[in-house]
Input
Amino acid sequence: MTLEEQTTWSENESPSLRSYTLQDFQKIPQIAGLSEEKKFEMEVVGNVLPFKANNYVVEQLINWNNIPNDPIFVLTFPQKGMLLPNHFDEMADTLKKEADKKEIQEVANKIRLQLNPHPAGQMEMNVPALKDGTKLYGMQHKYHETCLFFPSQSQTCHAYCTFCFRWPQFVGMDEMKFAMKEGEQLVQYLIEHPEISDVLFTGGDPMIMKASLFSTYIDTLLEADLPNLKTIRIGTKALAYWPYKFLTDRDADETLATFERVEQSGKHLAFMAHFNHPAELETGSVKAAIKRVRDTGAQIRTQSPLLTHINDSSEIWSKMWQKQVELGCIPYYMFVVRDTGAQHYFGIPLVRAHEIFKDAVKNVSGLARTVRGPSMSATPGKVQIDGVSEVNGKKVMVLRMLQGRNPEWVNKPFFAEYDDGAIWLDDLKPAFEPKFFFEDELTKMKSKTTS
Output
């Protein structure tokens, strides 16, 4: 099927979701037309990193006349460079000798464990516990006022992003998953921690859940009537990957009614939408879905990492932010690719990331300058690259802690030696001190969680 043969879906249509995985992706007509070498490369990578696409992504978002360079194709379909050469060769050799499923899985898991599956202390430092000692493995509590909740029914997505830092959720290694079935323990934790004002539903994608399941979690929170809970956040890619969740799916109206109940309760509903490229904002369906979500009283904030091969230009970002504002969304974060999975493929040097951010911001109005970044979600907190400067004749990188494990760190500026090749906080060295200001306290925090 060529691009000219594709039809544009209307927001008034009621398409059924069809998912494609590693088992059947070669049946996609556009994929069938690729070379055998390209299809084998995708199979190799797809046996290590998770892969899932759907008919909306395939038929509406990808420009099949621009393969393999189309940004949405790279965003959703495995590419050879996403594995390091030695890892690619190891899995390729395993598949070529027609190993059984058990051996393939063993090789895949060995490679996965070398990809830093849980960065930024997620497993070691972020898992909270009730006062009775019960560990809550379906939650994370890293920042003072915000906790993350992983419903067990949301541990998948409508399609997977190839850069996703939560890829361990999807590869069948249960010991690497975050998931929680019950909302009562969440309520109990919020009662025990009155400093928490925000709960972020995440996954996977909470919007993969049926409305009846999602509303159970939400109603449990609302019925608890917690005075400290001010905001419920939903982290989701559904607007970009399956807008019909909010338009014509059987439970679309029920989903939106749940949003309305949050607002009617006096709580704020923050819809944290992931958009990685302007192409995701162009269909009539996504525009209509954004309007329906906003009509419930929810506020849509947008975020994305800065990604080589997908959105690594200031023009793309300024266009994306302008379109988001036009549609009533609030640009929120430009992230730096996390130190996990295919970081080597998607990562961008921090100095260049700031240049892209600066050039993009200067070409949008003040309404789009709500966005913050480029920001690294690192072990100590969210670290923003503020720019490059000269202090006492020394060229330095200016950094700022946007969010921290210790609230006292928030908004504190600090300096690193100039390094135009660094792509992550761990690559940087302090400019004027033997250690960064947070290091000693962070070490103590780590020792407490491991003791």
In short: The chain has two domains: 3-112, 122-365. The radius of gyration is 22 Å.
